[in-house]
Amino acid sequence: MLKGALIGVGHVARQGHLPEWSRRADIRLIAAADLRPEGQAAFRAAYPETRWYSSAEELLSAEALDFVDVCTPPAQHAAIARAALEKGCHVICEKPLAFSPEEIAPLAALAGRRARALVTVHNWRYAPALAKMTELVRGGAVERIQRVRWETRRNRPAAAAGEEGNWRVDPAQSGGGILVDHGWHALYTLRDWLDGEPRAVAGRLETRKHRQFAIEDTADVALDWGGARAEIFLTWAAESRANSVAIEGDRASLTLEGGRLALCEAGAPAQIWELPSLAEGSHHPEWFRGVVDEFLVEVREPSLRGRNLGEAAAVARLIALARESSRLGGEFVLVPP
């Protein structure tokens, strides 16, 4: 039985994480921390005899824990992860793990010294539609990938607990706009499909609709993968929620519209799968199950640690390069080796 604590009990924690933690027999949350009291009722409904703290510092000082689950606004992720690792806890943390690659490097070093797992919540990988696409790509269904087009369309940023101050639209709390909020998911998923790292990145960030916020609401990113090109379009300025992904390969193509996945090969009938849409909801507790399994593998098998952490560092680097490109007018910038 692993003993853990939840730090940050907002919408994502209550609707995305708690349902999975509370169903597992091998894990028990014994405490939670949040300055806001709103999440206490939901947490205590799942775990009646637990302790509640007003800060991460207070919780970490008082409790003997195996792990912590960090669900605070992103500005607090790196500091809480560092404090938890120093206390000897394994850490599972909502994305982004940190605002920059430079912040991730010392966290990785600390996790290594303390012999602890540090895993970022890369939950879109476990969406049924994307998991099926990964299965088909890895099984050779399209052969060599030539082009990928990813689109995420929303009409506004997702809500956050305490609507009078939505952290997603405060760059000091979020670390950026839609590029970090949705682009993070697109980038680690693309790395599941394309070999190695991209050679160059180009980005254009703009605000098309939500000019009251000091962040971009639209991002257009292109990546040169050396023989393959990936394009990511993200916006909070659309008329409605929608997701689409298209993969073009030497042999066949895969297209995902909402939850309808089609594999099309010349001279053969299309194969169709009807799966849950990526645009359904924002918290996805069923996707978090795969993340927990991934986290527990790293907790229990030290030799398997580091893949997720390396992935988070690579994504943070690509986001930083896309921003640099946007500042340069959208020209390609090389990805350092």
Protein described:
There is one protein chain. This protein is an alpha/beta fold and 337 residues long. The chain folds into two domains: 2-123 and 293-305, 3-Layer(aba) Sandwich (Rossmann fold), CATH 3.40.50; 125-286 and 315-334, Dihydrodipicolinate Reductase, domain 2 (2-Layer Sandwich). It is 35% helix and 25% strand. Strands 14-13-12-11-7-10-9-8-15 form a nine-stranded mixed beta sheet. Helix 1 crosses helix 10 (285-300) and helix 5 (101-114) runs antiparallel to helix 11 (307-327). The protein is globular, with a radius of gyration of 20 Å.
Topology of this protein?
Elements lengths: L1 E6 L3 H13 L3 E7 L6 H7 L4 E3 L2 H7 L4 E4 L6 H10 L3 E4 L7 H14 L3 E3 L7 H11 L6 E9 L17 H4 L3 H4 L1 H11 L6 E7 L11 E7 L4 E7 L6 E8 L2 E6 L2 E6 L5 E4 L10 H16 L6 H21 L5 E2 L3
Parallel strand pairs: 1-2, 1-4, 2-3, 4-5, 5-6, 7-10
Antiparallel strand pairs: 7-11, 8-9, 8-15, 9-10, 11-12, 12-13, 13-14
Mean pLDDT: 95
Strand order in the sheet with the most strands = 14-13-12-11-7-10-9-8-15
What's the number of helices?
11
Spans of at least 5 consecutive residues whose pLDDT stays below 50 are: none
Q: Termini, distance in Å? A: 42 Å
- Beta-strand portion reads 15-25%
What is the number of beta strands?
15
Highlighted features:
nine-stranded mixed β-sheet, 11 helices, alpha/beta, 25% strand, 337 residues, Rossmann fold
